Amino acid sequence: KIMKEFKPDYVIGFGGYVTLPVLLAAHKYKIRCAIHEQNKLPGKTNRFLSKYVDTTFVSFDENNNYFKNEVILSGNPCGEKAITTKKVDKTTLGFDKNKKLIIIVMGSLGSEVVNNRLKDFITNFNDKDKEILFITGNSSYEEFSNIKNDGVKIVPFINDLSGLMSSADIIISRAGASTISEILALNKPSILIPSPYVANNHQYYNALELKNKNLCYMIEQKDLDTNSLNEGIKYILMNEKDMINNLKNEPKLNASTIIVNKILNK
After folding, report:
1. How far, rounded to the nearest angstrom, does the alpha carbon of residue 184 sit from its chain's CA centroid?
2. How many CB atoms lie within 10 A of CB 255?
3. Mean pLDDT to the nearest integer, 198-212
4. Contact present, 237 and 211 (Cβ < 8 Å)
5. 79 and which of 70, 185, 192, 239 could share a cystine (Cβ 3.0–4.6 Å)?
6. If we measure between CA atoms, which residue out of 164, 188, 192 comes closest to residue 177?
């Protein structure tokens, strides 16, 4: 009913089961439509919908093996946004310009499981050459706010994370598609801890794709502790130059422009 009344010129879905009826309705009324697959391992909804939409935009080149229609490598719009975001000077947040900055963030809500596994690392961190920004998420902040460590700044969230990531030396995070696109766009070495709770374990395959190209270091959640994290940091710092060069050599796609130009038939 909405599709018939609104009469859109184009409909694009970004995955998730809620997009299924919307795109099927668009297909029924012969409206041009597309899907965007942001993960290395496509979800069931997008695999199914590829038979009914005109175009599939993908973030990973190998994704075209899964789809039945026209496939365009566009990248992820979040990466393009990260490049254009104004850089935040880390010294404005009290960090030392001469020390390495490590940002730990598990998404806007944080991860209670990961946070608990990091408690020992955060409490006992002692490195005169490095500093840490630990973003707990609102639900865990109170538990961690009492930890006193001069080398660690603990906050529940930060508004301009993309801007601050530009000033960081290492990003420790989940392996969601949006975060990965920002890491790739900004050429930032990272330690990725895939969430095991997502559909089809897709974060693991996102992280594995980067790991296999030596673009990141990966730690599975079950293996995460102080020792494995220190090993990851040590590995990145020993291979920092090669990893950054590899990141710089990855194609930087203007995802929004590619998608909009296709919609406008340019």
Report:
1. 9
2. 23
3. 93
4. no
5. 185
6. 192
